[in-house]
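User: Here's a protein and a ligand (flavin-adenine dinucleotide). What would the complex look like?
Assistant: Let me lay out the input and then the predicted complex.
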Amino acid sequence: MDFSITPEQEQLYASMKRLAAEVIAPGAADRDKEGRWDPDVWKRLAEAGVAGMPIPEELGGSGGSIIDCCLVNEALAEGGRDGGFGLSLGAHWVIGSVPIWLHGSKELQERWLPGLCDGTYIGAWASTEPESGSDSASFKTTAVRDGDEFVLNGTKIFITNGPIADVCTVLARTDKGPTAFVVDTRTEGFVVGRELDKMGCRSSPTAEIHLQDCRVPAANILSVEGEALWRVAFECFDWERTVMMAATIGGMRATIDGAIRYAKEREQFGKPIAHFQAIAHKIAQMEINYHACRNAVYKAAWLKENGKEHMLEASIAKAMTGTLVTENALEAIQIHGGYGYLRDFPAERGLRDAKLTSIGGGTTEIQKMIISRLLLQ
Ligand SMILES: Cc1cc2nc3c(=O)[nH]c(=O)nc-3n(C[C@H](O)[C@H](O)[C@H](O)COP(=O)(O)OP(=O)(O)OC[C@H]3O[C@@H](n4cnc5c(N)ncnc54)[C@H](O)[C@@H]3O)c2cc1C
């Protein structure tokens, strides 16, 4: 078995981590406090080719493989320590841009991909509704045909990048079934509702979206009308459970390194707290968790990249990482003692950011449902 990455991928990781440390990390605590997205950070990352990483070069992207995307996402999270930036970037990539690349017509690709890749545009995806979360097939938003257009009505919630997106793929139900529509967010009737005040990942803007007689050309349908769930949405879930998980892995690395640094510096009873076995073993367990999660995420990503069946592995990676990232974040706070409980230290923000991993993109309970169904079928 070959677990190695190429020298180019090693360089890519190192350069992205450096860039994130220089551009993302410095304002991360302030953006978290203020719940503020920073377009300048986005611009700097886009200039480095990050915005179009998964999209092929001939369509304007950087042509990264799935493993490349994982490495970039992981490196940016490790160097930048801003869960919100990782969330917005991940959504822009895997649910904002990839569906248009994989399922859009040539016209849709030409209209949106160059801007999504150079960072001029930001992408989003709207499937969740107030009464349709884990039961993602139960959404109620309707799309009624009127000549060459469809008229969309309904309400979406928890839409990452909702307030800043230029283009949003909206799931709506036509008389043929669930259908994915690419919607220009300036379209009349695409109304960005209240911005949601989140516990963590606060530098990523999240909003409700109201579709009020929003007219969308029939030509903006991705893939086949009525088949969006199986053809488009499930592909997105795959990317969420591999590429987006890599950002969590990078965050876990940064959390462990922060805890190690603190344990070596902080002295009690006349010696660094790292010398107490209770603390040293916490760090060992955090490292065990990190390695298990990283291996699981990259195994699933590798299977996907090589066109192999990976539903079980992707759900295992998502379920395991969703649980262990929070466990590690709690232990990091414990190692920091009272200081870990203060907002001044990144450990506290790390915990709030970490918790999303067990909820967004399919909860841990849903991953276990998928895993058990595969085993018991
Ligand atoms: C910060 C953030 C960003 C998001 N970004 C987006 C986005 O960009 N686009 C988008 O469309 N959506 C987005 N989401 C929505 C996200 O995917 C949903 O929140 C998630 O799927 C869970 O749905 P829910 O919140 O309605 O919870 P519910 O489905 O109501 O679940 C509540 C609880 O019940 C459990 N549960 C539900 N069904 C079962 C079952 N069958 N068996 C066992 N337990 C069950 C769940 O695991 C959970 O613990 C985002 C959410 C958040 C918090």
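Summary: The chain has a mean pLDDT of 97.
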